[in-house]
Amino acid sequence: MLHLTDTKVNATEGNPVQDMIDLGRVAVREEKEKRRAPANTFEASFGYGWVTSKMYDVNGAALDSKGGIEWKLGYEYTWSNGMGIGLQYSGFRKSFSDGGDMTLSYIAPEWVGRSKFDRWILKSGLGIGVFLYHDPLYNAAGFGFHAMVGVEYMLSANWGLGLTLNGVSGSMPKQDWMLLKEDERCGITRFNLLGGLRYYF
To answer: Under a CB-based contact definition with an 8 Å cutoff, are residues 167 and 191 in contact?
Structure first.
């Protein structure tokens, strides 16, 4: 049997158990806030891209040199759980030996994930959008999809540097003059490595 000499409760005195619970909640909340990526991010990147698809000239001859300059502009919004949405425009240009240029454009919304570790941010993304092709003899529009992984370093609360590896694949309508084998489709797949500035707010 427990004998209590005083049944009055002093509400002003601290409760060690409750204090530990409160401290634990504060620590979890602070850790979650530290790992939260900035809500809004603008990206401007520049780099080099490589076409992995087979490419042919108008005479049906295969092209060997398929690298070119690449650029990207994008915006991402991230919720507190690290998931978010974004919109990107990416471009690619390749100059041929005959003096002509091939330009690829891609505009797409995307689903992104971002995790912050101190000043570092790891990111990934997937999306589906519009794929555009242009050269002096042919223009086409179709659908494309992309996948992206990258890392960013926050120089300050508002500015950072980033590096991303991207893959973009687009399909275009086949024309009568295109000579394709049975296992080939009309489209272009490329990979690129980009670096550039980030603005956070």
So the answer is: yes
Q: Is the distance from CB of 108 to CB of 86 less than 8 angstroms?
A: no
Whether the model pTM is above 0.85: no
> Could you give the number of structural domains in the chain?
1
Residue type, 198: R
- The answer to whether residue 142 sits within a structural domain is yes
What are the structure tokens assigned to 172, written together? 């275009």
In the predicted model, residues of the chain with pLDDT beneath 50 are none
Non-local (6+) Cβ contacts of 182 within 8 A are: none
**Residue 88 covered by a domain:** yes
Give the domain extent around 175: 39-200
State the Cα–Cα distance between residues 95 and 145, nearest whole angstrom: 24
What local confidence, expressed as pLDDT, does residue 55 receive? 74
If you ran DSSP here, which 8-state letter would residue 11 be given?
Answer: T
Helix, strand, coil abundance in the chain, percent, nearest 5: 10, 60, 35
- 147 φ, ψ to 5°? -135, 145
Residue 34 three-state SS: helix
Q: What is the pLDDT of residues 170-181, one digit of tens each?
A: 998 876 656 666
Nearest of 58, 45, 13 to residue 160 by alpha carbon:
45
Cα torsion through 107, 112, 117, 122, rounded to 10: -50
DSSP for residue 21: H
Task: Round to whole Å and give the CA distance between 34 and 16.
Answer: 27
Residues paired with 191 in a beta bridge = 50, 167
